[in-house]
Amino acid sequence: MKYPMTKKGAEALEEELKHLKSVMRPQITQAIAEARELGDLKENAEYHAAREQQGMVEARVRDIEGRLSNAQVIDVTAIAPTGKVIFGTTVTIANVDTGEEVQYQIVGEDEAEIKQRKISVTSPIARALIAKEEGDIVAVRTPSGVVEYEIVEVKHL
Question: What region holds the Transcription elongation factor GreA/GreB C-terminal domain (predicted)?
Fold first, then answer.
């Protein structure tokens, strides 16, 4: 099964993968070699710490490679804007009651970062917005009840 991912999200993972392979792996290999030279490995804290770090880096490399192999990368900037909310778009919505506006980008689950206003395509608010258009009113079920939002603008950034 393929999972949607924005082009920027895929690029960020590829950059992290490159860093892990070209910078972190050689540093850890060097640290292990230096720790081995210190002698007895049973009580060698530097050696055990380096091996532990190596395990974490290798696990992250496998994780990223798996995510990228299962990703369906979507470049929303290559899709003509229609005013309809789709995966990858940046949506400005206004609370119907308060008029308060907020902007979110709809991204893959792995990319979601609420502080950066990136919400998962599987989140309740994203599910309410997908396939709707500018000017539509959507009802979003929140912990404090149902909130209505008007879709103010849909951008392909």
Answer: 81-155
Q: Where are the domains of the chain?
A: 3-74, 76-155
CATH number of the 3-74 domain: 1.10.287.180
Bridge pairing between strands 90-95 and 101-107: antiparallel
For every residue of 67-130, DSSP letters joined together read HHHTEEEE-GGGS---SB--TT-EEEEEETTT--EEEEEEE-GGG-BGGGTEEETTSHHHHHHT
Q: What is the pLDDT of residue 44?
A: 84
Enter the pTM of the model.
0.82
Specify the CATH architecture of the domain 76-155.
Answer: Roll (3.10)
